[in-house]
Amino acid sequence: MPNIQSVIEVLYHKYRSCSEGHVASYIPELAKANPDDFAIVVVTVEGEVFKVGQTEVAFSLQSTSKPFTYGLILEEFGREFVLTKVGVEPTGEAFNSIVELEKQTHLPYNPMINSGAIAVSSLIKAPNFSERVKRVMTLFENYIGHPLVGDEAIFQSEKNTAHRNRSIAHLLRHFNVIEDDIDESLDLYFKQCSILANTQDLAMMAATLANNGIQPHTQKTAIKSEYVSDLLSLMFTCGMYDSSGEWAYSVGIPAKSGVSGAILGVVPGIMGIAVFSPPIDSKGHSVRGVKVFQELSKNLNLSIFKGKKS
Fold it and tell me: Which residue of the set 12, 45, 66, 159 is catalytic?
């Protein structure tokens, strides 16, 4: 395999001046992000770290958090029950799609879109709201390996502008997908999205999945190995929303994006990758991030369709 550090440094300098895309503004607090921030990190399953750029800049996880909370409820309730609440089919629709709730089973198509993620949040139980938040924070701390904090300003910004997500939640309640604690489950979802991490943290989360659920540095199990394939299969088919097919064709690894400008990708058994750059495209993906992943996949022969890595 080519020298990873050299490859990511070349890509960083190649795309650092890219001016395409716009910082997300529908959540007002996200509009404050610096469009020039740009970082690439690779963490191998052995725990080796390669990084370049503004890797210590913190950002909110947003939708990159979705696969991990899905894993939490899979471990707690099992596949059979979870499938009665959230499906596993791609939608071909945008991340905030609402149309699938009016079709057939009225279930969210998958946990990578907002409706599915809200349904997942409703299943994270504890004696009170603060304990529910603590469960979510502990989950991500197990993947990353150190304590985390949430951004209260981003949480309030999401909560105050979440009219579409509220409509999704009420439809989910109408169809008995979630229970009566609509506001609390929404707040838990917003808390999840507003957790702060940096690019190395995100790459470590991806590397943990690449390492069959074992955190490469702490060697602790973040998720049971039997459920890792569930997360990776949904990331591959649904993680990039209505461009998941194009992603499979041009990159070929399981991935998940977030509107804060982060993308994480998993090369099973090999490495986790994260790119952060706030300007996003019309699909909600980091513009620099997509370009980096496309070239990184080609240069390092990462696509799962390429056969044995050399």
Answer: 66
Catalytic residue among 12, 109, 143, 189: 189
Looking at residue 45, what DSSP letter applies?
T
- Answer yes or no: 63 catalytic: yes
Whole-angstrom distance, CA of residue 140 vs CA of residue 38: 23
Asked if 209 and 270 sit in the same domain, the reply is yes
- Domain membership flag for residue 309: no
12 included as an active-site residue: no
The predicted model scores a pTM of 0.94
**For 177-236, how does the pLDDT look when each residue is reduced to its tens digit (9 = 90+)?**
889 889 999 999 999 999 999 999 999 999 999 999 999 999 999 999 999 999 999 999
Domain span at 160: 78-193
**pLDDT at res. 102:** 54
**For the chain, how many helices (H) and strands (E)?**
12, 9
Question: How would you class 3 by CB atoms within 10 Å of its CB: exposed for 0-12, middle for 13-18, buried for 19 or more?
Answer: exposed
Give me the number of domains the chain comprises. 2
Q: Is residue 261 part of a domain?
A: yes
Chosen domain end from 147, 164, 193? 193
Model pLDDT, residue 2: 73
